[in-house]
Amino acid sequence: MENQNSNSKEETFLAQWLEGKLSDTELKIRISQADYITYLKLRKGLEVSDQLNASTEDSFNRIQEKTANKKTIVRKLRPVGWSIGVAASIVLLFGLFSIFSTNIVTHETNFGETKTISLIDGSQVILNSKSTITYNESNWKEKRQLTLNGEAYFKVKKGSAFTVNTNNGSVRVLGTQFNVTSSDDFFDVVCYEGKVRVWTNSSSHILLPSQRIRKINDDQSESSTTQLLEPTWIDGESTFKSVPIKYVITALEQQYNIKIDSESIDDSTIFSGGFPHNNLNIALITVFDALHINYNEKEKHNIKLRY
Question: Which of 50, 43, 14, 18 is nearest to 30 (CA)?
């Protein structure tokens, strides 16, 4: 019954959107990311159909007038509206077939949530909070490639090249274990097993186990090492080494679904340490007391920082 209600709601949202009663933004927050992408393709197919089915009467009349003035006997033209209508139907059906036969898969996590995803080839992805991966399931065997926004830990089965694309760069491996973090201006890759090749917008790197590469804003990439055997966040604790505090604040917001006002502090201050995922008070104390930053909750889930 629950699935039936969910399907009914999505059908209602789709109808309102196609009628112009819901904007793209309003639709996006009401349905899953995968369904939203599919609906955009559906609308594109319908627009093409409308264009092909537009009236051809005026064009047909002009052609008839021109042929009537010719002395040469010509065969009377047959109206072509029926053929364009058939063509439009074929195009629409082909478009719909393409939409639903392209198996775009999206996995995403909410505030404070982690999720383990098993891929077709047996590889495993663990998504951190407020993160998304998208890939095409239909050609996965030929092209093991996905797009990441956020943070994920990968355990890749050996085989053909496995590529993780982000807005900051790409990571390619054959079989290994590694962690990738990518936000608007922060890119961090750590290799835990095997060998990893990393491309940023300005450089290329090969990482061996315990090596990491990090790029912040437009600064040069920085190399370092880790003693950890896997990322700590998969066990419920986020840790940082020499990271500007603004990225730690973002991690806190994503884990606890809170809003932190940092306008009164220097958010470029460097932080090394960590915080737990199961206790907000301890997390705030651990991060901000170490930097002598005061905090108070102005209203629920809204925290202001000050010195």
Answer: 14
